[in-house]
Every structure is written in C-alpha cells, then in structure tokens.
Design goal:
With 348 residues, the protein is an alpha/beta fold. It contains 13 helices and 15 strands. Strand 1 and strand 2 form a beta hairpin.
C-alpha cells in the first residue's frame, strides 16, 4: 500500500509500505477513505516530536471502513464506517476510567502517527478499536466528521474547557489557524461577550470573522496588548488561548490575560518558552496545558448532527491520495494559500 512516511526532520515521502496487520486481539484494520493534515504533523516534520522515528507513517485523523477485526473486538464489525479518533484508549487504566484518554498508560494515548504508524495511508491499524472509534452517523459527510478526529475536540477541551470560558467573558485567541478557529467555535457555545482573534495572516483573520470572532487584530500591524486592554477597560482578557506553539505566542497570551484570568495553552511546543513569573506571580493567573483526551467527541457529534456547529467550513482544499506532497505544501504555506484544513480522499 501507499503511505506518507517520515524520514527525519524535513523529509517525507509518499511511498510503498507493508499493509498493516492485526497485532492485538483488540485491534481493527481500517481502510482509510478520508484523512487530513494537522498542524502537529508540521511540528513532527520540524523534529519537535521525539517519539517519531525514520520510517514511521504520519497522521492521526481518519474516516474509513473496517476491513479486519481482532477476536476481542465486540462493537466494531467488518464493513462498518467509522471515525478514527486521534487518541487511542485502552478503556481500563486509571486515566481512561477518569476519561483522560490522552494520558492512557495501558498502551493508548496519542500513539497513531507518533508511536505507531498513522492514518496518512491507504490502511491503518487501530488499537483498542471498540473504544477508539465512533460510528459514522447518518446525514454527516466524511469531511465534516473528520474535523472531530482532532481539531474540534482539541480546541474545545484544551482551549475552552481548560480555560474555563464562561458567559460574558472576553476571550482572546492567539493564532487563527484550524485549532484557533476550533477554539473560537467552542468558545461561542458559552456566550462570551467578546471573542478576539490575533494572527499575522490576513486570510486567517478573515476566516476568524466567519467563525465568530468579534474583533480581529493583525499583530504585525498593531500592538495586540494595547488593543485588548483598550477593549477591556485596561484589564485584559478573561481567557487567553494560545493556539500556535511557538515561544512568542505563549508569551503574548500571558501578556494579554487579566488578573485572576486563565491562560490555556493548546499549541505543540518544540522549544523552551520563558515564563515570566516575575510579572505573573501576584496576578492569580491560572495556566493550563493539555493533550486532547477526546472525551468530548460524543457531545460534539450530537452538536454536529443537530447542525449546531458547522464543521464543513474548515475544509478549504481537497486532494487525492497521490497528491499528498502537494497537499502538504499547500497546508504548510497557509498564509499564501488560505488553507485551513486540507482533506485527502481515496476517491480523489
């Protein structure tokens, strides 16, 4: 089969690899019908994720068709169409029992496209199939559902819920890429008084307006700290969400938050960040980090099927599998291409 294979920082190839087989009796093999590229995959290609090794298949998001199941798989059957979650859950360890699936110590967590071969391939082995996949609901397209594999749960859980967004809050989102837009989408569910999006790319700020941002700030053209303070009577944002994963954006989020506010870090960081405790220690600020657990996926599925969230608008570009390398170029140069999420499908 063909797959997108990591060969060290900056090097990838769409090449022939062995088709996956069952390793454990709780596994399933899924034919990948639709997949996508994540900002985390770009961090992987920069060398920011130590678990990645030469020869591993990238990717952790997919919608597909079950073609093989282990003997212990009870709820997933041959021919079922499923959403493959970015997080695998053993379902029995302490963290899984607490719905903290991202911290699974029973062999799950974020393993697809990280510790084992991932989803940017024609087929993928999915561990713990019963607890790591979701049936495709009627009336929902593959593209919409694919947004629930990672970005929507990540923005909602790690940004909005960790940041404790409440009705009437001012929410500042640093970074208007797909994860930042997911955080805006999730924040709007809690009736904030103001959502502010901050980015350097005009195209992404325009997208942020469509996703519900009340104010957009190009921090290459104006001082976002001064702008947010002017909008909040000098206080700052109740919740500042970092959605990029570089030192400058985390430090900006820390400077945007008001006393007794929340800083929710979503971004994947590959370099050390300076934490200015000399400025923050007396301000009663709460800082949270997190790997998505995907405990919110069933809730988001209900919101998706009831049309209370619009996941389709994330998709800006579509490709066939043989165009994987071009799709990466388009996604990596989003400031020029306007890409939010690129979708790759078996049928092209």
């Amino acid at each position: 089969m063909k797959a997108l294979v990591y060969h060290g920082p900056g090097v990838k190839a769409w090449e022939d690899v062995d088709r996956p087989t069952l390793v454990a009796d709780t596994d399933a093999v899924v034919q990948v019908d639709t997949t996508t590229i994540c900002g985390t995959d770009l961090h992987i290609l920069k060398g920011d994720v130590p678990a990645m090794v030469d020869g591993r298949v990238i990717g952790h998001e997919a919608v597909g068709t079950v073609v093989e199941t282990g003997t212990a798989v009870k709820n997933v059957h041959l021919g079922d169409r499923v959403l493959v979650s970015c997080i695998s859950a053993c379902g029995t360890c302490r963290f899984c029992r607490e719905s903290r699936f991202g911290q699974c110590v029973g062999g799950g967590g974020w393993i697809l496209g990280n510790e084992i071969d991932g989803t940017q391939a024609e087929y993928v082995r999915v561990p713990f199939a019963d607890t790591s996949t979701y049936p495709v609901p009627a009336g929902v397209s593959d593209e919409e559902l694919l947004m629930l594999a990672d970005i929507l749960p990540t923005g909602y859980e790690v940004g909005v819920l960790n940041g404790q967004v409440r009705p009437g809050d001012v929410v500042a989102v640093v970074g208007a890429g797909p994860i930042g837009l997911s955080a805006i989408t999730g924040a709007r569910l809690f009736s904030p008084s103001l959502v502010i999006a901050i980015d350097l790319a005009t195209s992404r700020l325009e997208a942020a307006k469509h996703f519900g941002a009340d104010v957009v700030i190009n921090n290459g053209e104006q001082d976002p700290i001064a702008a947010v303070r002017e909008l909040t009577g000098g206080l700052g944002a109740d919740v500042a969400i970092e959605a990029v994963g570089v030192p400058a954006t985390f430090e900006l989020a820390a400077d945007l938050v008001r006393p007794v506010g929340h800083i929710a870090n979503i971004g994947v960081h590959g370099k050390p960040v300076t934490l200015h405790l000399e400025r923050l220690w007396a301000r009663d600020v709460t800082i949270t980090t997190g790997l998505v657990d995907t405990f919110s996926t069933p809730t988001l599925l209900r919101l998706l099927t009831s049309k209370q969230i619009d996941a389709q608008r994330f998709v800006t570009h579509r490709f066939g599998f043989d165009d994987f390398l071009h799709a990466y170029d388009v996604f990596a140069n989003a400031g020029d291409t306007g890409a939010l999420k690129v979708v790759l499908s078996r049928t092209g």
